[in-house]
Design brief:
9 helices; six-stranded parallel β-sheet; 222 residues; DNA polymerase, domain 1; alpha/beta
Length: 222
């Protein structure tokens, strides 16, 4: 990608900026009920069921997590208890930013407004924005848009609220499935894939690949 200054840089938050440790939360919750030999597969299914849950009608993220957890437990014949969902949702509030995030964002924020488009809730995201270490111009949650990514509705809502077109933003995410495929389909040509190793890339979707946020300022000439 040639050096170009977007009107806004828009970000996925969890996984891209905040260390999305749902796998760790599941391990901590089920360490006494799920054997070490099946724990990786248990965690993988939990992630897949969460994606399936967000593809349906909007509901609070607690319910997304709880339903996916119950489906995972049924598949693996593990006892689910209501407090398990409470534990994992509470664990979400403790997550911190990836170490590379604050400095990288601080280099950009004075020149280009930073925007979050997140699958979070209005009561959950305030725990994480201060940990990013840089001014955030606008935060848009799935609760506000009434839709979870990868649905297009959140992106459309964001562009309307920012009063800009898809050609005026740079969208940054560590996920093809949740973000960059949808951004591509909406005509957002300027995209960055942060390869944090939790999801494979696909260059056919047309993005610049970086290893972490410390490399992002150079993408926009800062």
């Amino acid at each position: 990608m040639a050096v170009w200054t977007p009107k806004f840089i828009t970000f996925d938050c969890y996984g891209t900026l905040i260390n999305f440790d749902m796998a760790g939360a599941a391990r901590r919750c089920y360490t006494d009920r799920v054997g070490a030999d099946i724990m990786p597969a248990f965690i993988t299914d939990f992630a897949r069921f969460r994606l399936d849950e967000v593809l349906g009608a909007w509901k609070p993220y607690y319910d997304i997590v709880s339903s996916a957890l119950q489906r995972t437990c049924r598949k693996w014949q593990v006892e689910w208890q209501p407090q398990d969902s409470d534990f994992i949702y509470a664990d979400c509030k403790t997550w911190t930013a990836h170490p590379d995030v604050p400095e990288g964002l601080r280099k950009i924020a004075p020149s280009i407004p930073l925007v979050l488009l997140t699958n979070s809730m209005n009561d959950l995201i305030p725990h994480h924005v201060p940990r990013l270490g840089a001014p955030i111009h606008m935060t848009i949650t799935a609760e506000e848009t009434g839709a979870y990514k990868p649905a297009m509705r959140g992106f459309e809502y964001m562009l309307n609220k920012l009063e800009c077109g898809p050609d005026e933003i740079l969208h940054v995410s560590s996920s093809l499935r949740y973000d960059l495929m949808t951004a591509h389909d909406l005509g957002i040509k300027n995209k960055v894939f942060v390869n944090r190793g939790h999801e494979p890339g696909c260059p056919a979707y047309g993005y610049t690949e970086i290893n972490d946020i410390s490399e992002l300022p150079a993408v926009v000439g800062l």
